[in-house]
Amino acid sequence: MNKLLLAGTALLALAQVATARDITVAQSSDLRSANPGVNRDGNTDGVILHIVEGLVGYNNSGEVKPLLAKSFDMSADGLTYTFKLRTDVKFHNGKVLTAEDVVWNWTRYLKPETKWTCLSDFVEGGAAHVTGVKAIDASTVTITLEKPSAVFLGLMSRPECGYTGMISSDSVAADGSFVAPIGTGPFQWDEWKKGEYIHLKKFADYVSPENDGKPDGMVGSKRPLADGIKFMIIPDASTVKAGLESGVLDTAEISPDLIPEFKSSDKTQLIVSRNNGKNLFYIQTRDKVLSNPGVRRAMAMALDLDELVAAASNGTGEANGSMVSQDSVYFDDTQKKRLPYDIEAAKKELAAAGYKGEPISIIANKRGNVPSFPAAVIAQAMMQQAGLNVQIEVLDYATQVDRRRSGNYQVISQSVAPRLDPALMYSFYVGNKDKNASLMWDDPKAVELMKAAYVEADQAKRQKIFDEFHELMLKEMPGIFLYDMVDVWGATKKLKGQPVWQSNARLWEVSVDN
């Protein structure tokens, strides 16, 4: 009863604002901080995305493109990047963006007292140690690195970094304390009623970067077509569903089990969007049983991956055995390769590996928005056909994360958030397990290839690195990659445009009919 009363109260609050020409979107938790890249989480990143912009940003295929910069160039030695700023960019307070603003922002980000989440990437010992930021003239700035880094621009563009967003110095008080984000994005900060909603207003003077008239990741056409955005804090899924059906919510993430209902409804629409995140079976390669690559290959060959993905994703996913996303510029024919579904070959691998029916436990959680549990159940049935003694252990998500971080597991069925550069995706899985027990694979050749991808900037040469990495992965099978993550959202019929990108609400070029 209390749950129903709370749901009703939330919907009444929504109804009071539904007549405005805002886009009203639900998210499961409140903003942690309005300070870009500081005290953040996924929901926070999604709000900040609309307010601030960096010098560069990712497009749909994972390439880094100019955003606040009109262009950028790298010196022959790979140490100096020169950014030519656009001259049509204004902050939300009306001030024009200049090179000095870029210097001020980078100086602030690199101060430890700012507590920037990404500081470790850009200081000594990081993947892209920044040694200098200099304004050459009003619209030209150079950033110098200690050593070449192919991931410098990609690191800058990450949600975790607050997109290394440029904010006006007026965002900070005289004593250095943060006040509110005055950015350059299509929407501007308006109001935050903690625990209830965050409201952003349309920035009337916003100008998109050069584009072909279509949204494209963080770049492309970014017109604010609505008067504002209201991010409602609604953790209860049943309230979200009721809000979408009644029309007082315009769009929100929904549970995949609602796909048939939203697909057939005359009141709502279903929005399915693939992102660069991964659904996979994370394997402990130091486990007594699973340290043998033959056992791991047998596990992979026992899976009818297409059937598993279709069932686990409610028909929304497409099998992909690569760490590289299908939407990436680096997803080529080599990345499409995967071990064949072959039960008899799997049995032979197990016999050659000396497998004697030892138990193998898959840890899963039952969060409704990820396929952890259903994927584990389907895999268990398939692997048993090859003679693998597979069991399932269901844990709450927090405990599952703790087990992975400590290395205390055999197999974990999990989902990993988007990382658009393949090298950054690799870094979540590959490295020294003695120093970081959460890593999956410590093969010396894999580590060497990952490090090479961090340095090599030439696209063709990077492609060869990623292809060699994938071939090695198929041989060693340190994990079984199932499919790219899928965002499942519901919306009213009145909503026009694509409101989600890479698991974040993205509400420019989106409108709602009156």
End-to-end Cα distance: 34 Å
CATH superfamily of the largest domain: Periplasmic binding protein-like II
Tally of extended strands? 22
The assigned CATH architecture of the largest domain is 3-Layer(aba) Sandwich
Helix fraction bin: 25-40%
| Uncertain stretches of 5 or more adjacent residues | 1-8, 15-20
Classify the fold: give the CATH topology of the largest domain: D-Maltodextrin-Binding Protein, domain 2
* Neighbour order of strands in the largest sheet: 13-18-14-17-15-16
Q: Give the count of helical stretches.
A: 15
- C-alpha Rg (nearest Å): 24 Å
| Largest β sheet strand count, sense and barrel closure | 6 strands, mixed
How many domain modules?
2
- Mean pLDDT over all positions: 94
**Apparent shape:** globular
How would you explain this protein's 3D organization?
The longest helix has 18 residues, at 459-476. This protein has 15 helices and 22 strands. The chain has helices spanning 2-15, 42-48, 99-109, 119-122, 152-156, 237-246, 259-264, 293-301, 305-312, 343-353, 372-384, 397-406, 422-426, 444-455, 459-476, and strands at residues 22-27, 56-58, 64-66, 69-74, 80-85, 130-137, 140-145, 187-193, 197-202, 215-216, 219-220, 228-233, 251-253, 268-283, 359-364, 389-394, 411-416, 479-492, 495-496, 500-501, 504-505, 511-512. It has 514 residues and is of the alpha+beta class. Helix 1 runs parallel beside helix 6 and helix 9 packs antiparallel against helix 11. It folds into 2 domains: 22-239 and 494-512, D-Maltodextrin-Binding Protein, domain 2 (3-Layer(aba) Sandwich), CATH 3.40.190.10; 275-487, Dipeptide-binding Protein, domain 3. The relative contact order is 0.15.
